[in-house]
Amino acid sequence: MRWWEKGTNPNMTEIKSAQQLVDTLLNAGDKLVIIDFYSPGCGGCRALHPKLCQLAESNSNALFLKVNYEEHKSMCQSLHIRVLPFFRFYRGAYGRVCSFSCTTATIKKFKDAVAKYGTDSCSMGPAKGLEESELLNLASNRDIDFIHPMRPSRAGDLALSGTVS
């Protein structure tokens, strides 16, 4: 078993596509969703993995998504992931609430973000998920198969939907 497959919890999901990432965020409701962008060859990612597994276990109401940078490089580049390990936190209708890089030496930053955004609260409305600019970047990326989701825009109209082959 490879290091990134060890110690995973029921609330940890390996993302296999851009579509799965977007759909998971949109269907998460008001749950705290934490995305871990990692690489199998990253020493910092490997060192941090056991601590993330412990945090996932102690925060069973949060959803931890794992994105392998090497397998999904094009998607990660569309999302402007430039350093690893990198984390993004999403919460319901607020969408992205924070993002940062973190190491075992700075794990307090991660724990503080879980404490701040993981508390019971209601963000009133459907889960926002990725920002519109991120969705457009994914939709325009010809290296990935992705269908832009239709959702209400700020004006109340439906956002345009497009497919990329």
UniProtKB/TrEMBL annotation:
Residues 1-119 form the Thioredoxin domain. Keywords: Disulfide bond, Electron transport, Redox-active center, Transport. Pfam families: Thioredoxin. GO terms for cellular component: chloroplast. CDD domains: TRX_family. One of its GO terms (biological process) is cell redox homeostasis. Belongs to the thioredoxin family. Probable thiol-disulfide oxidoreductase that may participate in various redox reactions. This is Thioredoxin-like 1-1, chloroplastic. The lineage of its organism: Eukaryota, Viridiplantae, Streptophyta, Embryophyta, Tracheophyta.
